[in-house]
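User: What would this chain look like folded?
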Amino acid sequence: MISDFHFLRPLILLALVVPALLAWLAQRSNDVRIQWKGMIAPHLLDRLVVDAAGRSRLRPSWFLVALLVLSITGAAGPTLRREAPPFVEDTAPLVIAVDLSQTMDAIDVAPSRLERAKLKIRDIVATRKGARTAMIAYAGSPHLVLPLTEDAALIENYSDALATRIMPTPGRNTGAALSMAAELLSKEKTSGTILLLTDGVEPAASDALRSKDNGVIILGVGTAAGGPVKSPDGSFVSDASGSRLFAKLDVAGLKALGSDTGADVATITDDDTDVRWIAQRVQSNFSQKQATEGDRWHDLGWWLVIPVAMLSAFSFRRGWVFQTGALLLAIRLLLPVPASAGGLQDMWLTPDQQGRLAYQRGVFDVAADRFSDPMWKGVALYRAGKFTEAVDAFASVDTPESWYDQGNALLHLSKFAEAVAAYQKALATREDWSDAQANLAIAQQLLKAKKQKDDEQPQDPNQKADSVQFDDKGKQGKQGQMNIAEQTSEMWMKNINVSPADLMARKFALEAARRSP
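Assistant: Here's the prediction, encoded as structure tokens.
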């Protein structure tokens, strides 16, 4: 921590020469012997000078020197830790990996381990308030249920459809599930967390748990006493010996695994204690990663405003107001005044700092006027609904983020072709940017729909047809057949009525078939 201490603007420390010079000048001005040294002999001067008894040793010059030292140090930007960059999501992505091995149908927790896990997924997603969440189902092989999404209703629908019967490969492969989750999170701009909802982790997964860059949380589902396992038809499952299969949760083994690998481990509870614990761990993992991975340092200089204000209070002592105030006013008059000066605010805050204050208050028009940084100005204009001006502001910067923001503004202006081009420009530099890929797909769909609408515009009703013919045979009706190949994909989709569980079962079976030799 101390080794990370440095100044963000170290060149400002050169200004410490000013208070040092003031201290030297103040010392000379207060020394009577120096003033009379050239006029009176030293042996006589010592006899003539009488020190003032009881005179206060606190002088305005010393407080002014201390005030300047603190102010210059604060302006230099002392820092110890990193912070997240602006416009980066402050919520951590989460991948929920649900164990769908056979023992998850045990009924030691009502109504079953899997059903209780589904309820916990609902509660966890509800606490995340639209944060990006993905879901993986795994048994002997892992399968993606949903990629990272903010749609809580979609996650709820698919989590409700989870069942052990949909898994094509029996067993449990936690290591493969962790690898798939890590691959999903690797495409994100920020570090995330992997949540395992399981009733056991095989020893072979220990190495996979240790090697993950993202945080891992294990929520054990079940009880140490255990319970029988039910099959989908309602009967009890038997083991190889013919006895009823009885599954127990190895709580001690899970805790030992957590201590060995660094994963956070807990067991399911009847209330929301486990859900709140998971939310805290997700945010804690995110904050720790941001502190080590962020490319910006947190400026701690503003804390020195407190001692500066306390020292400034001494300027109101009798006889000090004029001396201190006159010097500060002289310093202010010597500083160049910008053309867009706004009073005391311009004296203490930069235009971007003023814009940030207005932005945080939601006054986006004022923020856009204050910002000098084009990206900040563009975002403020975007939030103010001035999309054309936002595009112009973003256009002055040639970065993937600028092209992405231009695409968003162009979508609001219904300039779909230009939006597609902007997103493609952003992806040319950042190929794995999931947000840009998703918005590009939306822009392409809107552009396609617009072209189709333009092509389907009705002809001029005043234009006459070349000829009109009537078919009298049509009055009698005609029995015919339609070739099934002529039906459109849209007609097929309208006639398909498959539950999410059956859909996932087919998808997982195809994926397992492709993976097998």
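The mean pLDDT is 79. If you want, I can go into more detail on any region.
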